[in-house]
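Appendix B, record 7
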Amino acid sequence: MKRAKYVRKNKRKLHTTATAFAVLILFAVFSGTCLGLSKSIEHTEVVGVSQSIQNMLYAAAAPMQNLPVLPILSEINPSVTPEEKPQEPEAPPAQQHDVLPNDPYPSLYATKVEQEKMDPKDRVAYLTFDDGPSSLTIPLLDVLDRYQVKATFFVVGKTDEESLNAMKEIVKRGHTIAVHTYTHDYKKIYASVDAYLEDFAKIHALIKDTTGVDTALYRFAGGSVNSYNQQTAKTIIAEMDRRGYVYFDWNVDSGDATRNNTESQIYSHAVNDSKRFSRPVILCHNTDAKKATLNQIPKIIEALQKSGYRFDVLKPETKPVVFRIPEN
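Structure tokens (predicted):
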């Protein structure tokens, strides 16, 4: 009974105290005399009113007198902490490559990406040009600009001013620039994995230094299957895969590298063979001698667009078109 009376007595006391404080604040706000209230709250612990309530009362009055705001409850009592905001999930760590001891090219690695998912009904044609840059690169870029078509250029090691400017223009106009070969010397580059890496690193550095593009794409000179790399193709591909680079062969050959092919034959190969695929990767060339190819590009673009194709550039996430490596 005594305990019950004590509890009722303290409840009445708490209610009375809280009511009194409310009246004081209202009076202070309307009268503009908050100094006394602020000081009394700052220096007095009111019985029956929690520290958090006192802090709130003081904070309400302090701005009117330019008084310092009391520290929050967690600063007064470290055992009381505000509700913590849930932490955002951490981003997955960047992919780490296994750099081998004494690797002569420790920075020659590309980040691997997942292949993009595409609508099977989507018809996409990829125009690709090997062996440039050349005197015909800028005229070719002008044609592509006219049709608002983007293409992929697999370039070789040319360091003259015209070629370097053409490489810059390829990138500036929104096309993809990628590695082909520096020397185009089949016997030399396919002699071993080390020989291929040496050539690859040289043309990769030229592209990066000239255009700023750290490309992850490449195309083997002569394609991934040729008469010069029968003994080394698998090991070279395995090493380049380990380093994260993606290579593309082709499933449509325009035939512009075949001697005595006419312009009409180039057009026929490029257009008719492309229609066999929903995603044709079309092999063309961009050397000084390929004027016939340049002349047929407008007709090729128009014919494929009329057949429902759109054009795009190759990217690391594009599903690669590659030749089947024969078993030795």
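Remarks on this record: The first strand starts at residue 124 and ends at 132. The CA atoms of residues 236 and 290 lie 30 Å apart.
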